Amino acid sequence: MDAAHGRIEFREIDEHGNALEHHLGAVEVPQRRAAVNPFIIGLWVLELALVIGIMVIINEAMARSPPLREIRCRSRSS
User: Fold this and answer.
1) DSSP 28
2) What is the mean pLDDT of the chain?
């Protein structure tokens, strides 16, 4: 079955049934600048805002809690 697939060829024909010749030379592909997807940019901005927000929340929680040494001293004194 593999031998049969090796012999299959495709030819393009015109409206009169004549085979069109294709030149398989090097095709020049114009280089495009990478397109920027605005949805992806929005996701990056949202991620950055979430990371900064979480850092602020953790910082505020750590600033308001007493140091661990004071917690240990209070528990021994009681």
Assistant:
1) P
2) 78
